[in-house]
Design goal:
The complex is a heterodimer. By secondary structure, chain A is mostly helical. Chain A has one helix and one strand. The longest helix of chain B is centred in the last third of the chain and has 31 residues. Classes of the chains: A mainly alpha, B mainly beta.
């Protein structure tokens, strides 16, 4: 019972990993947006990143 | 199997038998098989072979303490054969100053003979006398080609008896009992004087007994783990690890195949410089346009900067020129190092990489908005964009997903076996093999 389940589960995990690679999945987080105006190409300042103003690391140990 | 046995004949009644002590009627259910019979009225143990039912022993008993869960005379179909409960005894053993009690039931079928049921804390065993003599040594026993591990040796006392028995039963009788286990079976030797009786038992769940004898209510809930109770993790743990190893090999093959077929096409590679002198003007700019080919695939954006105890932060947006679809993300490149009382140290890296998932083919450009450590006057940095790269983290997750169930099941099997053997003469510290006895019987 458990063994059958594990075989099915393992096959599912491998299939998911293969499908993920095929479809170009990633573990990184990015913010997806739609309908960015074409004017950004000519006027980059008209777009503001959601990550702008991020507080940066300024130290070290 | 054993369902071919003819049905049980009408309930036999041995007429005219009365207890010579108290006069109570004595019912002999197991015909000539009974060697002793116990009067339910006065608790006299009578010689069933004697036409006058000679009194062999009389004992004091508090019947409410030792009330059989299956009343004498109850009939039922146990594993395909009709049986009638003809005898009951309560036994006890003292281990490390603690007294343990269990109950045994004598079952009778006129064609199949005698078999037994035992019950301890809600754990049941279907027991029959061994057909051949097992071989036993110090560590275990062998019966019908199957190996059993020694579990416990103790002295069992007979505390209370009721009904008929196919042997000369006596209250207060002590027998040396040794149990060997191979779940779900238990092999027991019982030595009384110079006579040794071997029996083989198989674990049964209370619900099976209740269904077999059509008993009202629910069976007592089992407490703890019994010596031959089959593990709920009913599989060979070693087999699971073998399956895990096989899946891991498949995963490595998958990794190699996808690494080989990944195109890893560089579509943009530029070096820029950020000057603080330009800070008053708009820092953001866009890259040259580049094409992403193929179907839906990922895009890797790599950033490198020769920072030294400084940082540079880049607000990126990968924008599809045709559809306006964008992926917005920020990346920091920072590298710090130094020397203190603990010695030299370093933090961060001069390179950074991010993989944007599932980006369709099309024409794209990058909008880049740099932010730089204010103490830095000018910072060069390189940006490269690569189409269709393998993501090894996915394999890492897959590996963990495959590993976790095996670890959980192994741990459950381990704790179950630990509980089982903690009640034995061989407590867990001496347990050499956990998995070997946990699932050989799947």
């Amino acid at each position: 019972m458990f063994r059958k389940f594990y075989f099915l589960y393992g096959a599912l995990v491998l299939s998911t990993a293969a499908f993920g690679q095929y479809r170009g999945w990633s573990l990184d987080t990015v913010n997806q947006l739609k309908n960015v105006p074409k004017s950004v190409r000519d006027n980059p300042g008209s777009y503001r990143s959601v990550y702008a103003g991020y507080h940066h690391y300024t130290g070290g140990k | 199997m054993s369902t071919g046995a003819p049905p049980l004949p009408p309930k036999p009644q041995a007429k005219g038998l009365n207890c010579p002590k108290c006069g109570a009627a004595i019912t002999l259910r197991s015909f000539g098989q009974a060697v002793t019979v116990v009067c339910g009225g006065c608790h006299s143990i009578l010689d069933a072979k004697d036409p006058n039912l000679a009194i062999l022993q009389q004992f004091e008993a508090i019947t409410s303490v030792a009330k059989p869960l299956i009343p004498l005379g109850t009939r039922g179909k146990l594993r395909g054969t009709d049986y009638e409960v003809t005898g009951f005894q309560r036994r006890s053993a003292q281990v490390d100053g603690v007294t343990y009690y269990w109950q045994e039931y004598v079952l009778f079928n006129p064609y199949k003979g005698i078999r037994y049921l035992s019950e301890y804390n809600g754990h049941w065993n279907d027991i029959s006398i061994c057909k051949t003599l097992p071989t036993a040594d110090f560590g275990g026993a062998t019966y019908l080609g199957e190996s059993y591990k020694h579990f416990q040796s103790t002295s069992a006392n007979t505390d209370f008896v009721l009904g008929e028995f196919p042997w000369q039963v006596r209250v207060g009788e002590q027998a040396a009992v040794t149990d060997y286990v191979h779940p779900p079976r238990v092999l027991s030797s019982e030595k009384l004087d110079k006579e040794v009786t071997w029996s083989i038992g198989e674990y049964m769940y209370g619900r099976e007994i209740w269904d077999s004898f059509k008993l009202p209510g629910d069976p007592p809930a089992p407490m703890g783990v019994y010596e031959n109770e089959p593990s709920p993790v009913s599989l060979n743990v070693t087999g699971m690890w073998v399956a895990f190893a096989a899946f891991t090999v498949f995963l490595l093959v998958l990794m190699a195949v996808f690494d080989m077929r990944a195109k890893k096409v560089p579509v943009l590679e530029e070096t820029y410089q950020y000057n603080r002198a330009d800070a008053k003007s708009e820092p953001s700019f866009v890259s040259d346009e580049f094409a992403l080919g193929g179907g839906i695939s990922n895009v890797q954006v790599k950033t490198s900067a020769p920072v030294d105890n400084h940082w540079i932060y880049l607000n990126y947006a990968l924008i599809n020129q045709d559809t306006g679809q964008a992926w917005d993300f920020g990346r920091e490149v920072s590298y710090y190092h130094g020397y203190d009382s603990d010695g030299s140290w370093s933090e961060g890296k001069r390179t950074d990489s991010v993989v944007i998932p599932s980006v369709p083919a099309g024409h794209y450009y990058l909008r880049i908005e740099p932010e730089v450590d204010p103490t830095l006057p000018a910072t060069p940095y390189s940006v490269s964009v690569i189409r269709d790269v393998p993501v090894f983290g996915i394999y890492g997750f897959a590996f963990l997903a495959l590993l976790v169930p095996v670890v959980i099941i192994s741990f459950r099997a381990y704790t179950f076996e630990r509980s089982r053997w903690s009640e034995s003469d061989h407590p867990p510290m001496e347990l050499s093999s956990i998995s070997s006895s946990s699932g050989d019987d799947e």
